[in-house]
Amino acid sequence: MTTKVVPGQLVASRDAAQVATEAATRMARALRNAIGKSGRAAIALSGGDTPRDAYTLLAKESGLDWTKVNVFWVDERAVPPTDDRSNYRWAKATLIDPAGITADRVHRMPADAPDREGAARDYEAAIREDVELDGDGIPAFDVVVLGVGDDGHTASLFPGEKTVDIHDRLVAAVDARGAREARLTLTPPAIEHARHLFILAVGAAKRPPLERVWSAQGSIHETPARVVRGCRGTVTWLIDKAAGGLAN
Question: Which residues of 35-63 are buried (b: 16+ CB within 10 A; e: fewer)?
Answer without folding.
Answer: beeeebbbbbbbbbebbbbbbbbbbebee
